[in-house]
Amino acid sequence: MHFEVISTEIFILVLGLFAIIMDLVLPKNESRKSIGSVLIFALTAWLIYMFTLYTPQAVIADGGTATRYFNDTIYVVDNYSIFFKQLFIAATIFTMLFSLDYTQTVLRYKGEFYSLLMTALLGMCVLASSNDFLTAFIGLELMTISFYILVGARISSKNSSEAAIKYLVVGSVSTAIMLYGISLVYGVTGSVHFYDMLRNQYLFSSAGLAGATMIMVGFFFKLSVIPFHMWAPDVYQGAPTPVTAMLAMGSKAAGIAVFMRVLYVAFPLIGYYWLPILAVLSAVCMIGGNIMAIRQTDVKRMLAYSSIAQAGYMMVGIVSADFAGMKAVMFYGMLYVFANVGAFAALSLVEQHRGGSDYKSIAGLAKSAPVMAAVMTVSLLSMAGIPPTAGFAGKLYLFTAVVNQGYLWLAFVGFIMSMISVYYYLQVAKAMYLDKGNDEPIVISGAARAAAVISVLATILFGVWPEKLAEITNLASFTFLQ
Amino acid sequence: MAGFPLLTAVLLAPICAAVLMCFVSPKSAQSVRVISAAAMTTALALTLYAFFNYDLSAGGMQFTENIPWIKDLGVHYSLGVDGISLPMLLLTDLIGLAAVYSSWNITNRPKEFYILLMILIAGVTGTFIATDLFIFLLCYEVVVIPIYIMVIIWGSTKRVSKEYAGMKLTIYLLMGSAFMLVGVVALYLTASSVLGVNTFDMQALAVAGQMGLLSEEFQIFAFLLLLLGFGSLLSMFPFHSWSPDGYAGAPTAVSMIHAGVLKKIGGYGLIRLGLLVLPLGAKFWAPVIAGLAMINVMYAAYIAIAQKDLKYVIGYSSVSHMGYVLLGFAALNVVSVSGAVANMVAHGVMSALFFAMIGFVYEKTHLRSVTELRGLAHQMPRVATGFMLAGMASLGLPGLISFIPEFTIFVGSFSVYPVFAVLAISGIIFTALYTLRVLAKVLFGPKDDKFDRYADARGAEMMPLIILGIALVGFGIFPQLLMGMVGTGTEPLLPLLERIADAPAMIGGIR
Asked: Which residues pair with B250 in a beta bridge?
């Protein structure tokens, strides 16, 4: 047992316990911001430390081992999982940073918010590293159950409770389907380990194929891929805004991380036959998500549909099923974090001060909080893929990868739909800049402003000069393909 | 000045101004205006330096800069100007500076306005000086969003609402660019696979295209995609309808830059990417382009006659003039392509001056209708001078900027498309008709007392007229300044154009 391999997970677990204990120790009416601040600092330090964990290119080129295992081979720490863990941690840091005030004023149980965020983060990290179906399942459940509670954290709001129940019901169904699939696969192959699936001929029996399909469907639920997306709009709208942000960036990226590992490591052959279906699904997501987003009047709901479309874009990279595609997915996942941080930081501010997140509530934001309005606009444009934001570079990576594999039609769908998405993203900009609304200046906390400004600078930096991020994603996908 | 990154400085001047303005108090409109004007003056001075120090005898890309940018995609931050792009760059900075001055009186959120204007100018500048396709694309689409925001906030609602105008403009351009992006991605991948190295370098792509490394089918397909993108930006029929609505809704500065330079990115892209990289595709689609160009010239001029709103007249007139550019491109010989490039510059200066004058009149009188404005020459002689200059240039009066370019286009295209060329020349009659009608009604005729209280342009308001007027007359009297420069850019095309002369074209060679 090499416990040093899972140091990240242990560290996060300790932070989660620390949050619980501090919540009990601190006096009842004392602000819980201090807990959040400590977590932010600790996680930031760890995030920076994690850069040293990568196995450098030179070592891999020399044929050195890039993969470390914990507990036999069921838990794997490679550059791929390190990258995704960094992504989750960055998402969590940003979310806590912009929601310090929000948590303090809107939520009733503040300390629990932080500890649950840590367990959700732990679940994501386990997902990214899992190398068998049961570990993946545990990670998935740890993440999802934390989210069930977090979604309902706005206890006074009926929407929030409704969203929590909906998420719970749909989530349980998808879990059941996936678990049934895992049991079928275990039944025919006699193993739940990813490596054992690879050359197992029994997997191609009808029961094995049914099991594999069910596992995929389970993932599609988590990724809110059309036609398994029904839960997303209601849950996104009802959940407290920071939680929505985490759902959009963390939960989705975690799903993608484990989905890619399952597809490429466990079921590469089945996956090969699945690619055309995945291509169609991703096109359906891009078209459906973007078209449905047009008609929304609530920004959070609009972002829910847009996140369905974004899942479609990321699946484009999965479809290309090669080095470039994986790299593109990771690149896109990372920049999607920054874009979401910007959008949700502005949105949580609006929700906190004006009580809603529809187009009426954001009207006139350009006057009352000009920085936030600008951040929101740039972030949304990054989601739409307009240069010089990172979204453009990301989409270019994704679509060059997939066109290289011969899916030219997918590039047509993708680029046209992303231009259509500009329409509804600009409706938000229009509401903020043009519509008459509440002009009262909003006081923004330094932390929220920092989160928003850092994310927007990152968005523009990676859009104009994606070199550094591209290098890291290169490293991450290179190891994985070994 | 060897080693000084001149083009980077030209590109960074507006960006620096925009960043600087973020930290200026929103209340001090004056400092915002001065910063913008200073930035654009710097950019213009540097561009003029480049223009007059460009080595005409050497030709090719000069003032080049090249820094590896994104290694795995093969992107280089590479800039350079040649005889085609340098006039366009000069045009950008001329109109940019004029646009800054013609927005001098904006009182509603001037800080945001000028920041967006600077981003817009930087985007256009980058498009013309980039020699790397990635950097080109980066700058190409930067411009769309500032324009949308500027139209909906500072625009004007007349026949169509400004929200509608802004969105229409945005959607048209973005849909066009979606097709173009697919084309570029396909081009990048195909060229990278045949060249064996990932590259976005336009020179390398051009080599791949001209050496016959790209198959003819591919060139025809990719050129169509680029044509959809660049054609809609150039307001090629049937993708032109955003142009009059968009210009009518947009604030003066946006109309000036959009009609003056932004549109020209379409023509520039067709030459730089379409012709140089995909010559066989260009040859294949040329007859179609020529036909559409014809419709542009005639149809838009015909509609312009019926327009009441001054901005719509000029909007349709610019669609009509773009027909000449397309015709020059479609004829695919050195003379006609030179004419097309020069005409883009000519039309840019002229339409920017037109929009600046209309904007000034509208700002004072809040009228744009041809039926309501009359006899302005009595009260505003300077503005009337500007109108006359732009109008005479529009109908191609010798001695002004657009005579030689248009003449060159006709000379070049007559041998290839005699029917179209004759029709296009007769289009000038329509142009003369609507231009003279508008000028006569608006400027001359009996004096109307209700305009007595409006003062003529003075001070900063005169600057657009001075800047653009000098260019209009200067290039008209010394056409060699412009044509010589353009010629060094287009002459190297000669072997290429001769080589593709035998390639099949849409008419007569459809397979």
From this structure: none
Using one digit for the tens of pLDDT, what is the confidence trace for B171-210? 888 888 899 999 999 999 988 888 888 888 888 888 888 8
Is A388 at the interface with chain B, CB within 8 A?
yes
B452 Cβ partners below 8 Å, 6+ apart? Answer: B379
Residue B79 has phi, psi (to 5 degrees) of: -120, 160
The Cα–Cα gap between B323 and B331 comes to 12
Under a CB-based contact definition with an 8 Å cutoff, are residues A314 and A260 in contact? no
pTM of the model: 0.91
Output the six-digit token pair for B476.
Answer: 């008209």
Comparing alpha-carbon positions, the chain A residue that sits nearest to B169 is A423
Please report how many Cα atoms fall inside a 13 Å half-sphere around the Cα of residue A26, on the Cβ side: 17
* pLDDT > 90? residue A121: yes
Q: Which residues contact B178 (CB under 8 A, 6 or more apart)?
A: A412, A415, A416, A418, A419, B229
> Which of B73, B108, B136, B177 best probes binding to A when mutated, by most A CB atoms within 10 angstroms?
B73
Beta carbons within 8 Å of B242's beta carbon, 6+ residues apart: B168, B169, B171, B172, B173, B232, B235
Is residue B28 classed as helix, strand or coil in its secondary structure?
A: coil
DSSP assignment string, A235-270 = HHHHS-HHHHHHIIIIIHHHHHHHHHHIIIII-HHH
> Within 10 A of A386 (CB to CB), how many other CB atoms are there?
26
Contact B182 A411 (CB under 8 A): yes
Does residue A423 carry a pLDDT above 50? yes
Tokens 């895992």 belong to: A182
Non-local (6+) Cβ contacts of B28 within 8 A are none
Residue B9 class from Cβ within 10 Å (0-12 exposed, 13-18 middle, 19+ buried)?
A: middle
Q: Is A224 helix (H, G, I), strand (E, B) or coil?
A: coil
For B149, the closest of A386, A418, A433 (CB atoms) is: A433
Poorest-pLDDT segment among A31-45, B63-77, B221-235: B63-77
CB contact under 8 A, A396 and B175: no
Neighbours of A34 (CB within 10 A): 12
What pLDDT is attached to residue B441? 86
User: Which residue of A376, A379, A403, A415 is the best one to mutate when testing the B interface, meaning the one whose CB has the most B CBs within 10 A?
Assistant: A415
State the Cα–Cα distance between residues B325 and B312, nearest whole angstrom: 20
CA B406 to chain centroid: 16
Task: Count the Cβ atoms, other than its own, within 10 Å of residue A175.
Answer: 18
Name B419's Cβ contacts closer than 8 Å, sequence gap at least 6: none
Dig out the tokens for A376 from the structure.
């929101």
Q: Vertex A55, ends A78 and A42: CA angle to 5°?
A: 75
Strands (E), B234-380: none
How many CB atoms lie under 10 A from the CB of residue B276? 21
Which residue, chain included where needed, has tokens 């290289």?
A: A404
ipTM of the complex: 0.88
* Tens digits of residue pLDDT in A290-347: 999 999 989 999 999 999 999 999 999 999 888 889 999 999 999 999 999 999 999 9
CB B145 to CB A386 under 8 A?
A: yes
Check: CB of residue B131 under 8 Å from CB of residue B202.
yes
